[in-house]
Amino acid sequence: MEFLIFSDSHGKRRNMELALSRQVRKPDAIFFSGDGLRDIGDRMDGIPVFRVHGNCDWSLGIDADAPEELTVTFGNRRIFLTHGHRLGAKSGVGGLLCAAAERNADIVLYGHTHIPALETVPAGTETACGVLPRAVSLFNAGSIAEGSFGTLTLTDSAVLFAHGSL
Length: 166
What we know:
This protein is of the alpha/beta class. It has a single domain (2-165), classed as Purple Acid Phosphatase, chain A, domain 2. 14% of the residues lie in helices and 36% in strands. The protein has helices spanning 13-21, 55-59, 94-103, and strands at residues 2-6, 29-32, 43-44, 47-51, 69-74, 77-82, 107-110, 117-121, 126-127, 130-131, 136-140, 148-154, 159-165. The strands form three sheets. Strands 3-4-2-1-12-13 form a six-stranded mixed β-sheet, covered by helices on one side. A five-stranded mixed β-sheet has the order 5-6-7-11-8, covered by helices on one side. The chain has a two-stranded antiparallel ribbon with strand order 9-10. Strand 3 and strand 4 (47-51) form a beta hairpin. The longest helix has 10 residues, at 94-103. The two termini are 23 Å apart.
């Protein structure tokens, strides 16, 4: 399965449309990590969108039908989607790792920092909330308002991330 990942559009819907138009294959779904819910609905060009609120969505009074966080399963992978502001994403990944462990997630997709990032933390790593029972991949697509986005490809045996830019 192939996914397109956006975060922090802040009114730049056109950038998401441009990134989508440049994909070689139509993604199976789109993940949106918040801060721009006005820019994206629950479908984009017929593609299902999994989306969460960001801190700016709340402060602007946007009341879209989107949760603050979401956990979904594709194949044998559990994906935790969050904006990250309530988990301290700007201060490090500790809160994100604890949230992943609580939800038994393999993958965390987050935003908030506007900085593209990818880190995989191995199983057995000691965290503030205990030892990680499984490896966790943390991925921040950056800010699509600033031209960065991400892709995720899942197979039975692989998890492949990439950052893209407009």
